Amino acid sequence: MENHKLSISKINKLFKDKELKPSELYDEVFERAASTESIIHGHLTLFQEENIQKALESNTRYEKGEHLGPLDGIPIAIKDNINISGHVTSCSSKMLANYVSPYDATVITKLKKEGVLFTGKTNLDEFAMGSSTENSAFGPTKNPWDPSRVPGGSSGGSAAVVSAGSAIASLGSDTGGSIRQPASFCGVVGFKPTYGTVSRYGLIAFASSLDQIGPITNNVEDAKLIFNSISGHDPKDATSLIATKTEQPNLNKAKIGIIKELMEDGISEDAKEEVYKVAKLMEAEGHEIVEVSLPLTKMSISIYYLIAPAECSANLSRFDGVRYGARVSGNTSSEMMELTRAEGFGPEVKKRILLGTYALSAGYYDAYYGQALKARAMMKKEFTDIYKQVDYVISPTTPSDPFKFGEKSDNQLEMYMSDLCTIPANLVGMPAISIPTGLSSQGLPLSVQIMSPANTDNTLLDFSQTLQSLVSFIDKPILNRTEK
Q1: Would residue 154 show up in a list of annotated catalytic residues for this protein?
Q2: Which of 146, 278, 386, 394 minimizes the number of CB atoms within 10 Å of its CB?
Q3: Within 13 A of 18's CA, how many CA atoms are on the CB side?
Q4: What is the model's pLDDT at position 1?
Q5: Is 178 a catalytic residue?
């Protein structure tokens, strides 16, 4: 039986009914890793040995009826930019290759209290900067559906291990689509919560006003369960939200807007067809489908690639060879810092630091970064106004199905355009989810993205769960097709 593909609630019932032990599931997941990791390279490190005893302790809790909750004994993978005490947090960079975290991120503290068993740390684009996981200093992760294709990024490892079955779920981070885009490419569910609902304490920062931790899972139900386990106000994070009452969108007879600008040039016919297919299914259920126009979404790439690199430039200035991380000797302190950053950072990170530093420099701040902030505020208002007319908006998650390794490496703008549909949710701060809905003409996964107003996360997840049942996506990656 493929226990690694069951929902967490079903696994939890098997645990409670004593039909399956956490240690047996843990062994099964690592058997999967033994057969898939040599192909996909989803994990950078595996924690198998250290968690054997913890799995046995989880067995005992279930035997006594004293389990810690539905996540007790569930193997979950963690993106390697989230700190776990006593383990390397490398961000897939030479700069932090030997950095051992002295503390747990808040999300890790919460998951530990629930008895989660961590499978290990997953691969990513260096410092979460990329859309393909080709920028990792430790080699690329490959797509379980077709190893000649990218798994997406930056949370490519986190999406690939869930798709391949070497973790029941995973945590990723999403700055411009880094959970949803790889989830779409790997045929799994990816959820980016409302900005501030999940603590960023212990997440190595890329762009502080955009970064958000969220789950990658096999189904929406699991995404909701993990989201509710890791969310909540955290005084250690100055941007953490205090829960407030928010008017929720409709679940029954909802009005759903298809974003016109995300169904035009640059979007493949396959990706458009998935949105139309889903729209028809929802219409048949009594929901109203309309087309909505959000003109500023066309500017989202331009806005993002001024704001994100500017914040990246500021955040990564701490990696100077003095405080922590790599250090390359030099004759002077300035030379040491220069050599350390030249050797420690990869090409994509350097490019974004330079772009951000330029945008923040004297004489250019108002013309570039300042203008981008104004455009971002206008985009937020545009979405606020649209949500007065509709309950949800939908679009493709990605402009196309997964592309081949090296296909977009020589055309940086084309690479950046792969996040066209996902970036608006980060700029606005609203929740967004990617749900696999079908296969492209090449037999590769495609997904639809649903978004809703800020602080409507659980309603969005409930609505998405209904959509998931309508679509009934059951296709498997090529690595799993030999299984019965």
Answers
A1: yes
A2: 386
A3: 6
A4: 58
A5: yes
Tokens of residue 34, six digits: 């033994």
Q: 308 is written with which tokens?
A: 């994100």
Catalytic entry in 136, 166, 170, 178: 178
Q: What is the pLDDT of residues 293-330, one digit of tens each?
A: 999 999 999 999 999 999 999 999 999 999 889 999 99
Is the pLDDT at 484 greater than 50? The verdict is: no
Query: Kind of pairing, strands 392-396 and 255-259?
Result: parallel
As a CATH number, domain 3-251+390-480 is 3.90.1300.10
pLDDT confidence tier of residue 481, bands split at 50, 70 and 90: low
pTM score, whole prediction: 0.97
The length of the chain is: 484
AA identity, residue 316: L
Mean local confidence (pLDDT), 239-255 = 93
What string of H, E and C letters represents the secondary structure of the chain? CCHHHCCHHHHHHHHHCCCCCHHHHHHHHHHHHHHHHHHHCCEEEECHHHHHHHHHHHHHHHHHCCCCCCCCCCEEEEECCECCCCCECCCCCHHHCCCECCCCCHHHHHHHHCCCEEEEEECCCHHHCCCCCCCCCCCCCCECCECCECCCCCCHHHHHHHHHCCCCEEEEECCCCCCHHHHHHCCCEEEECCCCCECCCCECCCCCCCCCEEEEECCHHHHHHHHHHHECCCCCCCCCCCCCCCCCCCCCCCEEEEEHHHHCCCCCHHHHHHHHHHHHHHHHCCCEEEEECCHHHHHHHHHHHHHHHHHHHHHHHHCCCCCCCCCCCCCCHHHHHHHHHHHHCCHHHHHHHHHHHHHHCCCCCHHHHHHHHHHHHHHHHHHHHHCCCCCEEEEECCCCCCCECCCCCCCHHHHHHHHCCCHHHHHHCCCEEEEEEEECCCCCEEEEEEECCCCCHHHHHHHHHHHHHHHCCCCCCHHHCCCC
41 vs 414: which has the higher pLDDT: 41
Instruction: Choose the catalytic residue: 90, 101, 154, 418.
Output: 154
Contacting residues for 369 by C-beta, under 8 A, at least 6 apart: 306, 307, 310, 359, 360
Alpha-carbon span 210 to 166, nearest angstrom: 29
CB 150 within 8 A of CB 159: no
Q: Where are the domains of the chain?
A: 3-251+390-480
CA–CA distance, 143 with 188 (Å, rounded to integer): 12
